[in-house]
Design brief:
The complex is a heterodimer. The mean pLDDT of chain A is 82. Chain A folds into two domains: 1-47; 50-261, MetI-like (MetI-like fold, Orthogonal Bundle), CATH 1.10.3720.10. Chain A is built from ten helices and no strands. Chain A has helices at 2-45, 55-64, 66-100, 102-116, 120-131, 135-159, 163-171, 176-214, 219-228, 232-261. Chain B is an all-alpha fold. Chain B is built from ten helices and no strands. Chain B has helices at 7-34, 45-53, 58-89, 91-106, 109-120, 124-147, 152-160, 165-201, 208-217, 221-249. Classes of the chains: A mainly alpha, B mainly alpha.
Chain lengths: 266, 260
């Protein structure tokens, strides 16, 4: 029986890897086709540069302006990453406190949910008033924007555990910490990754938003400035970088989520 | 089973208590400012209120942002519901429509604002487009999920009763889809406001976002707070509007969750 199960798992992995490679090939092929069409259309129809630059000149911008692009991207990524780390640690500790104390959770959840619906466009200016222009503002905005999806998902994960597991640990006389360590945390992992998937996208967005409004260094500001200066090639290069970053973050977090969730729903 | 509380007590706990808390907080903030213990970036409530009174452009700005957000939202709702219906009806297209929605959702919307400004020219159309792009995803997913939420047994029953396609739609698919539709519409409303305000930062002569940006650069703290407050109220208002419509329109199966 266990053998057939192993075979089934192997088969599943094989199908999965086949589908992944097929997907990668199809994505690359589609991208090449789009680039070719793009170049042909721009040259063929004589579309002016400021509307859509040909991909070759965007590529040239990547080479000539590579240093600026890289520096600004690094700034944005740093803001987003530090903010995310801060937010994860705060969200985790708050969620654990909620899980261990039901009263605290019930008292503060409505307030937190009210805050959750506060749009990032409303948070960024206030943080800028408090912290001024610079990396700190990005970090704070990212931390606040990502805090709520993480917390809500984590809190839900730590609370929704299997009844049987609760009873078993109760029978074993497990302490609260042991319950947390052996039952609640493993059960919460899939929820953490769901939260991370939502938070990852808003982290990048939050970082770019705050750069935009503060006018400090970063990818968001580079996009805004090159748009105003009509430096279309740099604008396109920067937009492409931001799109690639966003899609990579989304893809990585979704993949991580699927990887962790698969043991829960085989 | 919870004990039924009297109506008066329920009213108190749902509206009275938060209201009292807000009034107390505002009073505290006002007196704190009066005694000079409030930091410089926090204006007193009366300063913000005064800003409402002696700001003649305020109403125009609010109306402008509301118009942009609502138009973008309307366009997004039409396209998203239509696309989701096509995706559910024409199976082969399902994956690509969903992936397109995910792709647009994953792209940082503000990154597209300068591009759109180059293509569409300066004017409300840029902000409308971004509001639409920012709010499409929950409505798309909600409609997709909703149209598929009727379970197989119910479909079989309709089949056994020899219902026509139109009857199937009217009596089974639409009623079971509505809760999901409303859930999507509710979540999307604040995103449309967020999209419109953010797009206004990138360059607009009117709107709450423009007002916010000008106030920030002149360090006009009460005005910044007023703009922030209005943004929040508009976002909450959009959400509340759909929650109200949902409350009136359906009495079954409220508060479903759609996958984000």
């Amino acid at each position: 029986m266990s053998k057939s199960r192993n075979e089934a798992v192997n088969q599943r992995i094989a199908t999965a890897s086949r589908s992944v490679s097929r997907r990668v090939i199809s994505v690359v092929a589609a991208a090449c086709a789009v680039l070719l069409l793009w170049q042909a259309a721009v040259v063929g129809f004589g579309i002016p540069n400021y509307i859509v630059p040909p991909p070759l000149s965007v590529l040239k911008a990547f080479v000539t302006e590579g240093k600026i692009l890289w520096l600004q991207t690094a700034f944005t990524l740093m803001g987003a990453a530090i903010g995310l780390v801060v937010s994860i640690s705060f969200a985790t500790s708050t969620a654990v406190a909620f899980a261990m104390n039901r009263g605290l959770a019930q008292a503060s959840l409505p307030v937190l949910i009210a805050f959750r619906s506060m749009p990032a466009a409303a948070i960024a200016p206030i943080i800028m008033l408090i912290l001024g222009r610079g990396l700190n503002t990005s970090i704070a905005v990212v931390a606040i924007v990502t805090f709520f999806p993480l917390l809500v998902n984590l809190a839900r994960g730590l609370v929704t555990v299997d009844r049987n597991a609760v009873e078993l640990l109760h029978v074993y006389g497990a302490s609260r910490w042991q319950q947390l360590r052996y039952m609640r945390v493993p059960f919460a992992m899939p929820f953490l990754f769901t939260g991370l998937r939502v938070a990852g996208a808003s982290a990048i967005l939050g970082a770019m938003l705050s750069e935009w409004i503060t006018g400090s260094r970063g990818l968001g500001n580079l996009i805004l400035e090159s748009g105003e200066m009509r430096e279309t090639e740099i604008l396109w290069a920067a937009v492409l970088v931001s799109v690639v970053i966003a899609l990579t973050v989304f893809w990585l977090t979704s993949a991580a989520e699927r990887l962790v969730v698969h043991w829960r729903q085989p | 089973m919870l004990p039924r509380r009297s109506l008066a007590r329920r009213m108190w706990s749902s509206t009275g208590m938060p209201l009292a808390a807000i009034i107390v907080l505002l009073g505290l903030a006002e007196s704190a400012k009066y005694f000079g213990v409030l930091p410089v970036f926090l204006p007193s409530p009366s300063q913000v209120a005064a800003e409402v009174v002696d700001n003649p452009a305020l109403l125009g700005n609010v109306a402008s942002t509301a118009y942009k957000a609502a138009s973008g939202y309307g366009i997004a709702a039409t396209v998203a519901v239509g696309a989701a219906a096509i995706a559910v009806l024409v199976r082969p297209l399902y994956g690509s429509i969903y992936n397109l929605g995910v792709g647009i959702h994953a792209v940082p919307i503000i990154a597209t604002a300068p591009l759109l400004a180059l293509w569409l020219g300066v004017g409300p159309q840029v902000q409308i487009t971004i509001a639409a792009l920012a709010s499409q995803f929950p409505m798309l997913v909600g409609t997709m999920q909703g149209l598929q939420s009727a379970d197989a047994q119910q479909r079989e029953l309709m089949h056994v009763l020899s219902a026509t396609r139109a009857q199937m739609l009217r009596f089974l698919l639409l009623p079971s889809a509505l809760p999901y539709l409303f859930a999507g519409f509710k979540i999307a409303a604040p995103s449309a406001i967020l999209g419109a305000v953010t797009a206004e930062w990138a360059g607009a002569d009117r709107g709450v976002g423009a007002m916010m940006l000008y106030a920030l650069f002149s360090y006009d703290t009460p005005k910044v707070w007023l703009a922030v407050l209005i943004t929040c109220l508009m976002a909450a208002g959009g959400y509340g509007f759909w929650a109200l419509v949902e409350h009136v329109a359906i009495y079954w199966d409220r508060d479903v969750e759609i996958a984000e």
